[in-house]
Write a structure and sequence with these properties.
Layout: H1 13-23, E1 27-33, E2 38-43, E3 69-76, E4 82-91, E5 97-106, H2 108-121, H3 136-150, H4 160-172, H5 181-189, H6 193-203
Antiparallel strand pairs: 1-2, 1-5, 3-4, 4-5
Helix pairs in contact: 3-5, 4-6, 5-6
């Protein structure tokens, strides 16, 4: 950021520095002089702009008259990264537009993380394999885990109705017909055996 900043910018500096500190290294903050049409300050320049560059304010989305905030709106950096931007109109004491504070957030790391998590959350379609008839615990755990994935559920945050549906499915597969099955189901669902017995009774009525 260069020296010689306009006086009206001084009050905005703590806000700009706080935003960059919180969202570093994903956020760029730039302040534009609306009268000169130039960048007068910039932090963490992910767009590779610099002080003195044209503001290109005319490219901003249209906003309702009197609006103080424009956006959020999408943009794309020169290297193809997707960003989300929001602009704040800075007015003087008389209400006239003096500058523009723009925040550009690089969302590409989040988009990549979301894509990866979505892939992990997708149902796992394993090839059929032989499982010993006596290994009921594995049958039960795998069935509950698979159903939670398919339904986009977390085992530790199930409602009573969701647990009931899973217990009913386990019962329909005949997996409660063996010793200790209730204990295995209880551990898989994170509840007590008493809860499993109550759900099983309800499922069978």
């Amino acid at each position: 950021m260069a020296s010689g900043r306009p006086a009206w910018l001084e009050l905005q500096l703590p806000v700009c520095e706080a935003i960059v500190a919180l969202f570093h290294p994903l956020a760029e903050v730039a302040v534009h002089d609306a009268r000169r049409g130039r960048v007068v300050a910039i932090w963490n320049a992910i767009s590779e702009r610099k002080v003195g560059d044209p503001s290109l304010i005319e490219e901003l989305p249209k906003s309702p008259d009197g609006a103080r905030v424009i956006g959020p709106y999408p943009k794309v950096l020169a290297d193809g990264r997707s960003i989300t931007s929001v602009s704040v109109i800075l007015r003087n004491a008389k209400g006239a537009t003096r500058g523009l504070l723009c925040i550009d957030f690089d969302r590409s790391p989040l988009d990549s993380a979301i894509e990866m998590l979505t892939r992990f959350a997708a149902p796992v379609h394993e090839q059929a394999r032989d499982i010993p008839d006596g290994d009921w615990r594995e049958h039960i755990v795998r069935l509950i885990d698979e159903q939670c994935r398919v339904r986009r559920l977390r085992c530790d945050r199930l409602t009573r109705e969701q647990r009931l549906a899973l217990v009913r499915l386990v019962d329909e597969r005949g997996l409660f017909s063996t010793r200790h099955a209730a204990a295995h189901a209880a551990r898989a669902l994170g509840v007590s055996r008493t809860t499993i017995y109550a759900l099983l009774k309800e499922a069978r009525t």
